[in-house]
Amino acid sequence: MDMTTVGDSGLLDTLQHEVAVFARRAEQTRLGGVGQVRNSMDRAAYLLLNRLDKEGPMGVKALAASMGIDSSTVTRQVAPLVDTGLVKRTSHPEDGRAVVLQLSPRGLSRLEEVRSSRRQLMAELTQDWEPEERDTFCALLTRFNSALSARMAVPPGTDTAPAS
Prior knowledge:
mainly alpha
């Protein structure tokens, strides 16, 4: 069954429009937080630092795979983080020829500063929401992002429509 014909197509139009507006607003503000930290870390840097913090040191290929991007993109995005001391390049403990990327103490401190600022922004934006509304929004946004990730993992030209 084609989901675009199920129910109110006006709802789907509203959804796609609101997602587009959200993407624009998120990019305009970079959801950078509040105060002096606002707009102080771009999305790519934040996501890379956050991944290294959550998953620990790893090579470029592993980092790229875990983020769903190619190695050349990671290499390009990591270079300024290494230059500014937020990420360290070290030798792999088992294979000294391989390079491992690791969040530096300075990088962790900077990441925590940005996270705190962004947390404050999220609190301000949802201050008049009920706790259940925050939970529901977070769960649905996570589900939506997971669906987008799964969609991006499907090779182009593959039929993703469910069988009738």
